[in-house]
Amino acid sequence: MKGLEFLTxxxxxxxxxxxxxIFLVWSLxxxxxxxWRAAELRQKGWFIAFLIxxxxxxxxxxxxxxxxxxxxxxxxxxxxxxxxxxxxxxxxx
Length: 93
Prior knowledge:
The chain is mainly alpha-helical.
């Protein structure tokens, strides 16, 4: 098959090892970042899912840029200083 000769360099003669190492490093970087964020936000379910499931970084990237941002925004304290309580207003006639 003449059209598939480019795969020889990718998978044949040591190319598979290089491809595996690239995928391994890619996956470990994203998995580490996602595990760190899940632990920081105390999300045990996500943490366990990242330990068990290997998606070559796809689930981890989605978690970092979609799901954890929502949780981080919901858990973040407001930037405004707390307002002192207002005394009750007397009734107006």
